[in-house]
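Quick entry, no commentary yet.
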Amino acid sequence: MTAQAASVDPAPASLSGAERARILLFGGVLLLLLNFATPYGGLIGIPISFFLKNKLHLQAHQLAAFNLWVGVPLYLSFVFGFLRDRWSPFRGGDRAHLVVFAAATAATYVAMAFLTPTYAMLLVGLLIATCAVQMVASAANGLVSTIGQQHIMAGQVSTVFNLATWIPVTAATVLGGVFSDALESRNSGAAARLLFLAGAALAGAIAVFGARGPRLLFAAARSERPATASLGSDVSRLLGHWPIYAPLILLLLWNFSPGGGIALQYHLANSLKATDTQVGAYFAISYGAALPPYALYGWLCRKVRLSKLLFWGTVMAVPQMIPLLLIHSPTGALIAAVPMGLCGGIASAAYVDLAIRSCPRGLQGTMIMLVATVFWVAGRFGDVWGTELYDHEGGFVTAVIATTAVYALMLPVLLLAPRRLTATADGQILEEATGSAGHFLPTPIAVTAAAENSTHAEISP
């Protein structure tokens, strides 16, 4: 959309506190179902990782390569978000995306449930399932992100995003060792069948949610699609919207963790002699320990301006992995997982908060899926580098040092975030004309967006 085509946005509808709470709850339920059902996480990803390592005897770098290939649709997450923003099956909006593509995901899982779990089947099946579920994710994430931006509650929505992402991951790590033991047994086919049928049931629940879900949730997001927008103008508007680059770089560095993924899994199993159950427990404790900071952020974001949350969250996050250098037993690793998880929660929530505030109008699905692209590209390529360090360049110590150095680079990147997006808390707008820090609006009223142009767009934080 060019400057000439830009229009002033109408004020968002006034929402009561009860309506906000219900919207956040409904959005959280939808995202929970999604994140439990994804083939790259939730109930599916971790057991498959154990199966490839133990049953098919993949080495660390081979498992990283498998994940790299299966993750191709994840690296293109922004494309699925762009499709969500520009196209609607049967003109049904996000509801139609959820119904059609959740049903396709369920059908793929059902087919995988009755096939022999070989390397080739897992590779092809997970690629197809990932493509289908990415369209589901673009609709669900785009819907919730739009609500957060339009109703000046990006921080609270960030809390919902993080809780809905990491609760399933935490639960899956607890169950991962159990599923791994089942997949290791002679009855691995039956265990895989149960695993994929569970995924199919979850995907089916998402389709039902899309068809019959609460009207309040879907009505809360006002359409922002300009009638004259073209593909080229949308791409130009996204690339020229400079506020998006600070959160994307922060998330790229935060998720590029050479020592935090597969290298850590192999270190726990091979060097510390942890069992699969203990490895799963370590990740479950680490992810679970981050949940209280995520929940705390939902309160802090309404009391403290984002700039402070970004800075102090990053300061706490930089040394996150250093305690692992002092650990020499599985029990010690389980204990260290608690402070490690606590250290990263505020930073993670603050980066997502900034990303939501930075969304170009009408391209919220694209932006939030671009965040997903950054997450997966950084994570998978971080694993590739980390496993190379682990296998050939000094082992786990080198991987931890590299991770800490990467995290330290986040501090100067904070300076790139526009003040107008970080100088307020949730529910505030910045009074730039008077130079004040902002004033609080219990319910967003009379919020007006300034006209956008190809290089800069004013968005109320």
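second:
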Amino acid sequence: MLSQLRVILSGGGTGGHIFPAIAIANEIKLNFPDTEFLFVGAEGRLEMEKVPAAGYKIIGLWISGFQRKITLGNFLFPFKLISSLLKAKKIINEFKPDVVIGTGGYASGPTLRAATSKGIPTLIQEQNSYPGITNKILSSKVNKICVAYEGMEKFFPKDKILLTGNPIRQDISSNRIDKEEACAFFGLNSNKKIILVIGGSLGARTINNAVGEKLETILKNDVQLLWQTGKNYFEKADQECKTINSENIKAFAFITRMDMAYVAADIIISRAGASSVSELCLIGKPTILVPSPNVAEDHQTKNAKALIMKNAALLIKDIEADEKLISTALTLLDNTNQQILLSKNIKAMALPNSAKNIATEVLKIAKRKN
């Protein structure tokens, strides 16, 4: 029997690392309400805002990534790494966790390294089909590695791997909305076809440009557009929409009710970040993926290809988006058989209950310690 559980979670930089960590913490708390949690993030990064908003305490490390070009940040990197390792050890010694969970991001490496050096049970939750170098290095030292894709024994010890999928936002996993309600929420017509475009919270320049240049083409095909531009591109998109002046196009910097957006959509255009792909598999709508080329190890393309190999999505290269993206989307909207096939295949790749399965594994390794 476990006494009061003490858990450290470390991960951040992007929502793809932060929200899985929060989902795992929420799931553990459901089973063990008295659990004491501490998050460890990187100072100045998104987690320092999102984790407290979710009701959890977080401590920041002075850490950042190593850039591929010569920068002042690279000069400071060794000092930041040493500082973060020392602070992570201090956090571990003072908090005395039963288990430490890493979900990726700059702070995850020093925190897991400090925990493994003390013999504390550790678990990595790897979201992508191609892991980063930090998780590869740590894989020989941690107790368990929860992954979202098959074939990860290429990178990690096979006996430590557990296929769980990526935890997704609770409002999406427990969706009970119908299409008419979702369309009404956005002021759209449920009898007309809808393309949902997701460019991420900051925005995807190539996707937004490709969409913005083809707004009239979309309208001529009697298709509606639900467009998340990201905050960096909203001003331009908003001006384009005002010029067009059509009720069939709705542009937002950020869609707060993504559960509604997913239900309203007939097809979806998205980047191929790990969390996005996991949500799309669970939603099961026909999807066109445009992987970002500006990510480490080109992991978004690798995430997308895992779906393409199973005919579960269409792939448009970022460099070809201007030319092909909207024409491909309109062609897909007119091909009911292809929509049915893509929907069936992407849904078959869904791994529901990911947070629950990971939380169960966390409790197992914590019990072994106790």
